[in-house]
Each structure stands twice: as C-alpha cells, then as structure tokens.
Amino acid sequence: MSEFDAPAETTTAHHQRWRTGTVVAMGLAAALVVGSAGTGLVVAATAVGSQVAAAAATTQTDTTASSDATGPDSYGGTQSFGGLAGGAGGYGGQNGTSEPGTTTLDTTTATDAQSVGVVVIDTALDYEGAAAAGTGLVLTSDGRILTNNHVVAGASSITVTVVSTGVEYVAEVVGTDATDDIAVLELVDASGLAVADLDTTGEVAVGDAVTGVGNANGTGDLTAAAGTVLSLEQSITAQSSDGSDAEDLTGLIEVDADIESGESGGPLYDADGEVIGIDTAASSGTTNVTGYAIPIEDALVIVDAIDAAAATGVDTDTISVGYPAFLGIALGSTTRTGTTTDSDTALVGGVIADTPAETIGLTAGDTITAVDGTGVATATALSATLAGYEPGDTVTIDWVDAAGAAHSADATLIAGPVG
Q1: Nearest to residue 316, comparing CAs of 334, 300, 304?
Q2: Where does residue 177 fall: left (phi above 0), alpha (psi -120 to 50 degrees), or beta otherwise?
Q3: Separation of alpha carbons 56 and 58, rounded Å
Q4: Which pLDDT value is given to residue 344?
Q5: Contact 100, 145 (CB under 8 A)
Q6: Per-residue model confidence (pLDDT) at position 260
Q7: Cα separation of 254 and 232, whole Å?
C-alpha cells in the first residue's frame, strides 16, 4: 500500500511515466526477448505530468518514472493507480524526429482517410496531479468509443476529440476490463459520427503490410507508422520501471511498425485501410521498435462483455462498470521489523480534500473498523467492502482515532477515478 497525503497544490513540472519489462514471445515466433536495465516493454500511452507537490512514492530518471501511486485501492476506491501509463516523448519527436539518445522513427503524418473514426483521448488524473493522453476508435455513430484500459486508468474526467471534425466531447466510462486492457467510453450528446472501418474476419497473416496510427506523444496530431506483421498470438509481460504492476497480455499481433507513446487505443490498419487491431504496447531500449496490438475481433468480444455488464449494472470478475465508489482516503501501511505490510489494520494514511472522508472528519492515523456494520480488519478488506457500493450510496463508517477514541459517521460515496 502506498501512503499519500492530500495535495495542497500542483506544480507545472512535467514527467514521463513509463511501463518497462520483459517481452516473452510465446506464439509463432517462439522467442524470448530480454531488455537490458531500463529497457523492455512500454505501453503506448502518454502521461503528461503535472506533479502534485505533496505526492509521495514517485521516482523518475530522465527517461523513466514509476507510477504516481501503486497498489490496489490507494485512495480507498476499487482501483489501482499503477495502471499501464506510458511516457510523454516516448520514442522521439513527431514525424520521425527524435530526442537525443533515442531511435529515429519511420513515421509520417496520418492521412485524412486514416483519421476517420479515430479520436484523441485526454484524461485528468486529479488525484495524482497529472494528465494523460491516448487514442481511441469510434464504434457507433452516437459515440461509443473503444480504447485501452490503461489509457483511462486513474482518470477522474475524460475528454475526447474526434480527429476528422475537431469536435470535443465529454466522455463517460461505460466499463473497463483491466485484465484484457480494454475500455469502452460513451460520448455525451454525440450523434452522426463517422465510425472506424473494422475488419473482423481475423484473416491476418505474417508478412501482411500494416500501419499503426495514433496520438503520438500526446500532441493531439495523428501519426502513421508503416510496417509488417512479424507474428501472431504473442504473449508479453509489461511492468512499471520499478518492477511493480506486472501485467500479462496474450493473443497479440506483433509488428515492426514504430508504434509510439500516446498511440494506445489507436488503429492498426491492414493494406486495405481496415482496422485489424488496436495499438497497445511497444518495445523500448532497442534499435528497432516492435509494436503489439490486440486483434480487433478479440477486443470486440470484450466490448460485448462490457456492454452486457453495463446493461445489468453489475461488475464481473474482470469488468468494472462505470466509475467506482470513492471514499477519498489514502490507505496506509504498517511497518513491522522493517517489513511493510497492509495486513494489520485498515489504517488511513491520508485524506483527499473535498471527498466524503474529509467531510466526515477522517484524518491520517485513524483506523477504519467497519463499513455499514461489516467489520474491516485490513486495508484489503476495506477495499473489497467499498467495492460493493455505488457512487451516491450512503454508508456508515466506524473508526478509531490515533488516541483510541471511537467515532461513527455517515458518508455519501462519490464517483472515483477509473479502475
């Protein structure tokens, strides 16, 4: 559990948030690719940091940085903020230019045809004092959007711009699947949108020409990277630069296109200009960039599952519907003989401003003992209990302060950051 105090203000400093790790290719290529220190796999989303002055547990170098918060339910909700967030300026600058010491990329400006049905996604990560950007696909004319879960993870608000028209919309979260890295959004008051041209036949072969398109480096302008399919049914493991938050993805299309940070959720086109996958990850620390995409037919299976869960309003083992209920605390940890653990108590490490926790008077050092009469002996138990509620629900919180005095108050939960 990471401990965070409520931020008083934000700075204007920018930072790069990367996912690195080992790529394990288990499909047709049957190869093992191991990056050297600081290299490996990063997801192709970009986060432009507006760092919280009081935020803790953030480490970064010139090229890598850990997530601003890690561990399940860092703020007492049902999500981890460690999600797959990529870094701004990932593989170099726009349209083939590069930063010092990075690989020069073979990319061009996306054409009008390649921009149809594509959106740029911008998210505010208010509880992390940061912002993130990615890409998405228009599935329906009334604004159903497909993207990666890691593009919107931790978001407290989302705006989406339709590239072909330049019109910006507020987006609501229909549902997310962190396991399969898929999210579905709904644009507010959208109609008449041009949709992405999808090829759901699954007829992708090694050697096929492809083009990855997306919001490279979060600039808002789409770039295109041509390449070929290297292999199919690939499995990879991505993790944060500090080795935490490892995530396995399977069944991916591997390509030699120069997929960049910020292109997550964007289309991988075939030679006919039809979408065969959504850009999700890319290698780093190597001379040649290798990209990975979730096959579009696999993504649509998850979309259908998300829609089904949303219709009932009930989460499943892998799908979270909408925004989670949010109390607004940073879950603390206890230290015993030099080892940090969350197993002892549901300790409050900090309270976020303007949240139910602050309203009822919770403070750092308090220990929550029950929610609606259900005992919560650990931070994990507290998180699991809160996960059973919806935004707008009123719950009774019992706690003991640092002096041992008992308290009880009703808190109306609010919508928290995306899981």
Answers
A1: 304
A2: beta
A3: 6
A4: 66
A5: no
A6: 84
A7: 6
Residue whose structure tokens are 């609501």? 172
Rounded-to-integer distance, Cα 175 and Cα 182, Å: 9
Q: How many CA atoms lie within 13 A of 116 on its CB side?
A: 13
The Cβ of residue 196 has, within 10 Å, a number of other Cβ atoms equal to 21
Segments in the chain below pLDDT 50: 1-101, 240-244, 335-343
pLDDT value for 174: 97
Cβ 16 vs Cβ 218: under 8 Å = no
* Six-digit token string for 73: 């339910």
Give SS3 for 126. helix
Rounded distance, CA 33 to CA 345, Å?
Answer: 41
128: left (phi over 0), alpha (psi -120 to 50) or beta: alpha
Instruction: Identify whether the C-beta of residue 91 lies closer than 8 Å to the C-beta of residue 43.
Output: no
Q: Which residue, among 102, 132, 111, 105, has the nearest Cα to 120 in the 3D structure?
A: 132
Strands (E), 38-143: 40-43, 46-49, 108-109, 118-125, 130-138
Nearest to 266 by CA among 111, 179, 178, 145: 145
Side-chain-facing half-sphere of 310: CA atoms under 13 Å: 19
Q: How far apart are CA 385 and CA 387, in angstroms?
A: 5
Q: 291 with 269: CB under 8 angstroms?
A: no
- Which sign, positive or negative, has the C-alpha torsion 367, 370, 375, 378? negative
pLDDT, tens only, 121-139: 999 988 878 888 999 999 9
Residue whose C-alpha is closest to residue 321's, from 334, 337, 305, 338:
305
Smallest CA-to-CA distance from 122 within 161, 75, 165 is with 161
Contact 228, 208 (CB under 8 A): yes
From first CA to last CA, the distance across the chain in angstroms is: 16
Six token digits for residue 262: 């910020």
> Sign (positive/negative) of CA torsion 184, 188, 189, 195?
negative
Task: Judge contact between 24 and 32, C-beta under 8 A.
Answer: yes
**Phi/psi class of residue 263: alpha, beta or left (left: φ > 0; alpha: ψ in -120 to 50)?**
alpha
Query: Strand, coil or helix: what is 295?
Result: strand
